[in-house]
């Protein structure tokens, strides 16, 4: 009996040890998984961790495709997609290459990123006095510090040029940018925002109220909440002058009364383009107009819209005229100064009753269309995703929840019945698939403004990309035609060629009234900061004949579907000849 009891006791002890070991192993595995899933939160656990580090990790996550739901929407060509209008009624797409199990995880991570970002932005608590004293207005900054000023977003004094950088903003970066644009003052706010102008703000504030540390430079002050740290950068302008861009806009017929058309003027013997541009830049006007020895400054208006240019030879005789009245034509130059008549933007004061999507296939110009819509309407656009790089370029709707209804419309690349039926109406932006595929491939490997390398184009990723994304281009349009409740079809090429008429259609669809001068301002700022930089490959043809055959079949299918819904078909340049 004693021996049996001893054996039972020994067994229970071993079982206890085994259970303890298994429990410990389970907890360790769970902890490792939790740490892996929440590594960004852990990195931001202490107040000493910088925003730069967190955003860098977030960018890294986006780079591997974890948080981009567009990766789910990459179906292979389906057998029924090319049948014609039957495909519109019942598109059958092979889902093997877009696993559904990723959808819930991507959605969860997208929400996590959005919450993390809100916390980053809202973390604007005043710094401790000791910490503030440690900050400096940095003697190495070449500009002269003018003081801390109140920043009124409704009546902003420094509104000549505006840009943001949540990761790398420094005082020197803002100063150089304003100097290159020929402004006298540079102001910084919220640690990440830069404003330029030629007039100091009217109201000064206490020095300690400018207490936001620059996001890209520890120990330096970049304004505060509704406060501007202002620097005079005039001494930098001599060095920056050689880097300024004065763009020739063309030769135009002069308006009948130049003094009524243009707010500022100068008569100067031996007038040069540089002299006129410098004069107009100081006056904060985007146009410098030269007729003989006369220099005029102003904006594009209904009386001088810059739409009807003429032969440049007619302007070549203008400088030699003995009397300014004899000159019927004038030379027009774009100064480095930004046209600010359409740069003011805000969120909707009341929630929109109509939930509008700005839908497109990736690479179809959605970001550029958002730039045009925001400047035309004066309201921010939202996004189904989060892109810190776009927020840095002024798209403040990026940080707003896409269902807040505080934005005029919401960017999306999604397709499918559920995602489409969430919206009451949509602007469907369509671009030539050949151009869209190349633009999205460039974005994937070089960001919004770069170009993929030769190595990328020659790799096996490019054929795989075309095979999967080409069918997505077609299915995206077909799904929106089938499930969209109210659609405005806009072709990227038409918008580019006839900007103001097409933009008017888009603004009317959004139920917003705008002035002609505001639309002309948008046209004057049409490119924004969205042209790709770097050397563009000439006569570059990445598509094989097999790829062309595939894409051309999709083009014909989409064209037939559009006409079947009584929309205008695809532009002729899409359709294979």
TrEMBL record:
SUPFAM superfamilies: P-loop containing nucleoside triphosphate hydrolases. Belongs to the WSCD family. PROSITE patterns: WSC (PS51212). It holds the Pfam family Sulfotransfer_1. The keyword Repeat applies. One of its GO terms (molecular function) is sulfotransferase activity. Gene3D superfamilies: P-loop containing nucleotide triphosphate hydrolases. Residues 142-234, 245-342 form the WSC domain. Keywords: Repeat. The keyword Repeat applies. This is WSCD1 protein. SMART domains: WSC. InterPro entries: P-loop_NTPase, Sialate-O-sulfotransferase, Sulfotransferase_dom, WSC_carb-bd. It comes from the Eukaryota.
């Amino acid at each position: 009996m004693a021996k049996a009891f001893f054996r039972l006791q020994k067994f229970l002890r071993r079982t206890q040890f085994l259970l303890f070991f298994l429990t410990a192993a389970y907890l360790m595995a769970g902890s490792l998984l939790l740490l892996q899933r929440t590594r960004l939160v852990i990195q931001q656990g202490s107040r000493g961790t910088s925003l730069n580090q967190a955003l860098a990790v977030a960018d890294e996550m986006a780079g591997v495709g974890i948080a981009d739901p567009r990766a789910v929407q990459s179906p292979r060509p389906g057998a029924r997609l090319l049948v014609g209008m039957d495909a519109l009624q019942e598109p059958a797409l092979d889902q093997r290459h877009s696993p559904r199990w990723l959808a819930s995880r991507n959605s969860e991570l997208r929400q996590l990123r959005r919450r993390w970002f809100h916390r980053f932005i809202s973390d604007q608590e005043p710094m401790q006095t000791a910490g503030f004293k440690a900050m400096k207005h940095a003697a190495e900054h070449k500009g002269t510090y003018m003081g801390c000023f109140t920043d009124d977003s409704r009546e902003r004094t420094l509104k000549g040029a505006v840009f943001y950088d949540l990761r790398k903003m420094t005082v020197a970066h803002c100063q150089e940018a304003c100097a290159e644009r020929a402004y006298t003052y540079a102001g910084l706010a919220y640690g990440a925002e830069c404003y330029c102008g030629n007039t100091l703000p009217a109201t000064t504030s206490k020095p300690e109220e400018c207490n936001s540390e620059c996001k890209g430079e520890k120990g330096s002050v970049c304004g505060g909440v509704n406060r501007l740290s202002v620097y005079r950068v005039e001494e930098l302008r001599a060095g920056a002058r050689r880097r300024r861009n004065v763009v020739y806009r063309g030769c135009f017929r002069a308006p009948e009364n130049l003094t009524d058309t243009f707010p500022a003027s100068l008569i100067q013997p031996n007038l040069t383009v540089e002299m006129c541009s410098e004069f107009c830049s100081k006056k904060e006007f985007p146009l410098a107009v030269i007729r003989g020895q006369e220099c005029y400054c102003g904006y594009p208006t209904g009386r001088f819209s810059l739409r009807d240019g003429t032969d440049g030879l007619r302007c070549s005789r203008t400088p030699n005229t003995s009397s300014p009245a004899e000159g019927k034509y004038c030379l027009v130059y774009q100064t480095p100064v930004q046209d600010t008549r359409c740069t003011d933007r805000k969120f909707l004061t009341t929630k929109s009753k109509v939930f509008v999507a700005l839908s497109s296939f990736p690479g179809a110009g959605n970001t550029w269309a958002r730039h045009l819509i925001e400047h035309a309407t004066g309201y921010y656009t939202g996004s189904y995703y989060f892109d810190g790089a776009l927020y840095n370029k002024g798209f403040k709707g990026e940080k707003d929840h896409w269902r807040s209804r505080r934005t005029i419309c919401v960017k999306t690349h999604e397709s499918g019945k559920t995602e489409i039926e969430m919206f009451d109406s949509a602007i469907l932006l369509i671009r030539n698939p050949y151009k869209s595929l190349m633009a999205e491939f460039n974005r994937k490997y070089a960001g919004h403004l770069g170009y993929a390398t030769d190595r990328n184009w020659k790799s096996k990723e490019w054929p795989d990309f075309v095979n999967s994304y080409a069918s997505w281009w077609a299915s995206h349009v077909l799904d929106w035609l089938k499930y969209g409740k109210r659609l405005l079809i806009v072709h990227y090429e038409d918008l580019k060629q006839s900007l103001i008429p097409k933009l008017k259609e888009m603004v009317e669809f959004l139920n917003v009234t705008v002035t002609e001068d505001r639309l002309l301002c948008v046209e004057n700022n049409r490119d924004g900061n969205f042209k790709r930089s770097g050397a563009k490959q000439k006569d570059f043809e990445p598509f094989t004949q097999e790829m062309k055959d595939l894409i051309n079949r999709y083009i014909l299918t989409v064209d037939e579907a559009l006409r079947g819904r009584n929309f205008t078909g695809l532009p002729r340049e899409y359709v294979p000849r």
